[in-house]
Amino acid sequence: MCSVHERGSRMKRRTLRMVTAAVLAAIQLGAGLPVYAHTNTGAVNTGNFIRGVDVSTLDMLEDLGAAYYQNGTRNDALTILRNNGANYVRLKLWVDPYDESGNAYGGGNNDYATTLALAKRAKSLGMGVLIDFHLSDFWADPANQIKPKAWKNLTFPELKNTLYEYMRTTLNNFAAEGIVPEMVQVGNEISTGILHNDGKVGDGNNDFSRLAELLGSAISGVRASAASGTKIILHLDQGGKNSLYTWYFGELLAKSPNLDFDVFGLSYYPMWHGTMEGLQYNLNYLASTYNKEVCVVETAYAWTTEDGDGVGNVFISGDEAVGGYPATVQGQFEFMNDLETVILNIPNDKGIGYFYWEPEWVPVEGGTYASAAGVAYKNDTVTPSNTWDNMTLFDFKGNALDSMKVLNQPTQNLLSNISFEADGAATALSDWNVWLSDSTAEGTVKTEYGNAYDGEYKLTFWDDEAYSCSVYKTFTNLPNGTYQFSVWAMTNGKQDTLQLYAKNHGGEEVNTAITTSDINWNRFTLDNIVVTNNALEIGVYTVAGANDWCNLDLAVLRKVD
Prior knowledge:
The N and C termini lie close together (11 Å). 26% of the residues lie in helices and 24% in strands. It contains eleven helices and 22 strands. 51% of the residues are buried.
């Protein structure tokens, strides 16, 4: 567990980053945060929340001798992940990942047969399946959207037709084998487009016409297949950077307003893709602006800065300061738990879940991102290696880490009237208690309409004379364990005291300060509330001067162990 000092330091880093992110977002959009209307005032249903794992390299790793264990007992990696709560798999699919001599490119060797076999294993365990069509012979990402070899010399009309037939035929073949995927990605991290250079965008090119046509052809192929009812995902990287998404989907949907997709997919790695608060803003923006579901289809965090195979990792010690969490098993768990909370905070239950990327990619000889043939295909100069072995959910010897428990079904938000919508404009709050000092005027604590973070109303502390007050909730018969309390806040920041607190839980009171500017909404979190006596009081308390103010919205209390 993190110490109190570590928690405070981490909270301070988060706050500094999220203030910056909020300022940038406001500047980019030319306005404050939009209003997001919640359809209910209580907790969302987490029963169908996706806790997915991308295990695309698993077949290759097993062939190379990788072994997996939990509590000292050897078992299939996918079974271990499922037993710890994973309910979906994401599997990449390459068109023809072999050179002219038949040498595999490596990195999982994800041709149709390999991906089909993994999908069948997942289905046999009762898991959902997402097929990630890379639309390439090898890795597809913003820097690599290489057209398949067999499609290289096609005219644009031929390419559109080939893409349509590829999607339709491949999904029909899957269906004939008993696999009708619940979700399909059309492309992987396609922020620069697909099938370069025909479908390339960016670097000064804002003409999305051809990209829109290609995506339309691929989607039509899905809809014409036996998987016609599957959810279709369009997936970009840089999940915490709203400016990318406003540009990309603004341009794309201007060219094709009726493009038939269901889910915005995002990659989010906090050391590379912006702050958690930027991610929350972007997810909320996408869900509310387009009325579509959102899913973090790639994420991961390091559990150590050590290197399992001695050839280097992509996450190194300096990334902890940027990512905001220690590179420990506990830090990995806390990151994933916070990410889960962010997704559950999306209005109208549009946040459907996440996929942990390659939790099983343990160090084993030959288990690299590419073979010699793959390196040659990419024209790469990097020695093939596994740079992911410290971001898995297994240790270097294949033992399941304690952080794997985050794959369990998320616990419900224990609070109701979470966004203070139940009463309209009022001084009496449903499902909350209000305390005022003897010298504090009635009406200092009230709900007000407008400029809310979530919904139409916010809770406000303000008076033209000095005041002290709190809003709080008490619990009895609460299961013992570890809890997290969070709330979104906006304040002038001049109070003598303004803090989240938790007390009467069997230990000393814990608290964290709300210290921010009045520029925008920020989320504050009180972690590691350890309940040992089946009771708890949580709330927000302030001692404030005349005209000091604070706005509160979207409160969450969840059990996290």
